[in-house]
Amino acid sequence: MVELSAMSFSFEVQKEISGQLGRAGVISTPHGQIATPAFIPVGTKASVKSLAPEALNNLGAQAVLANAYHLYLQPGSETLDQAGGLGKFMNWNKPTFTDSGGFQVMSLGAGFKKVIDMSLGSLDSDEAIAESKERLAHVDDEGVTFKSHLDGSMHRFTPEISMQVQHQIGADIIFAFDELTTLHNTRKYQEQSLERTRLWAIRCLDEHKRLTDQRSDKPYQALFGVLQGAQYEDLRRKAAKDLSEMNSSGIAFDGFGIGGALDKASLGQIVSWMSSELPRDKPRHLLGIGEPADLFAGVENGADTFDCVAPSREARTSAVYSENGRFNVSSATYKKDFSPIDKDCNCYTCNNFTRAYLNHLFRAKEMLASTLATIHNLAFTVRLVDRMRQAILDESFLEFKTEFLAKFQAKALD
Ligand SMILES: [Zn+2]
What's the CA gap between 376 and 311, in Å, rounded? Predict the structure, then answer.
């Protein structure tokens, strides 16, 4: 039974970028295939904010990533289990992902969200993170105790609980529970944390195997190990090596998530260190990355899938993307601009509405403003990564990257 259902997850590399680690491939899951590289829109609480699943499907999304922490707190993972799993609950019949909850437990729960950014600031010690803000999450070797950001109630996540929650939610691809660090933690703390994450990864494999056997009537769920190590080459390589060689209860990870503190300037390099240590035949997901330049760097260096809240979050604040860069469609400049957001975009929004109309909707605070802008930004980002895939297949990835970024980064329109 396990052998049979395990057959329903696989990854095939179709073409590699000559002389680079990047590749195009296909991930197969029980709910269909994902042609990679691919951008996966985020539906944190089993909903991509302001969009019906039909719109998400029409804009070309191949999968959705939801969040275990949020769904555990509300409505509760047992509700999703009873509903028949995440996809069925939200009426999305393509592949789904959930992240482990580690990031949210330690960022939202811990109350030091603002420190977990992608830039290296002046802070350089553990104390700087914990002392200046009320810390609402406590990490120990067994797991994390945290306060709900909804009602202040106390909860505890361990690797086992994260696996149980993610099995109940029932996504096709789930992630191991890891400890999140920031670029501001000391080197010594990064080493301790990496070892803790390694030990947690073993516990995730054991619990995942137990749950997979116990719930053998459910569709197979693929477990990805999460690689940390911040900005340190030796730690990043060690994490990749440790987790790719890891085998416990007779199983190994089905793929890998590249997570944690990433200094944007060296993102491509960090991904390349890990990709060169990871097995070629397993997919790699770059967690929380969605800016065009970062997507190119990730794809070039071997990442296969990406998720990020930025395209949809920015859309709700009227920041929209075009081939010539990002601009704010609610600015006065566009009040009487009757052209589409992006003349080269074939999304529902660009096919049917003008900048002037979106400008009006945002100023009038109409809900449709968020819907239309979100459709466009997600269509733009999904299509950008789809074009990278096509460029890899056509052996023109580097030319496409140079051409696209020269235009996109040239100037902002507002
Ligand atoms: Zn569009």
Answer: 9
